[in-house]
Design goal:
Blueprint: E1 2-3, E2 9-11, H1 21-32, H2 38-41, E3 48-49
Antiparallel strand pairs: 1-2, 1-3
């Protein structure tokens, strides 16, 4: 994720695909809906790159 100084996600992308485009899109949608703590980013200039690991389970 690319996060601005307001804690808003400006860009989200996958480092590795699950191999299933539908699942990849669902993960990206979930990341984009994430609520980040803006206080963490407020003193940073520009964009901060943040990794968000995901572990998918089959039910």
């Amino acid at each position: 994720m690319h996060v601005n100084s307001k804690g808003e996600i400006e860009k989200a992308y996958l480092l590795k695909s699950s191999g299933q485009p539908e699942i990849d899109q669902k993960v990206l949608q979930a990341v984009r809906r994430s609520q980040l703590n803006a206080q963490i980013f407020k003193h940073r200039q520009g964009i901060t790159i943040v990794d968000q690991p995901f572990m998918l389970e089959q039910k």
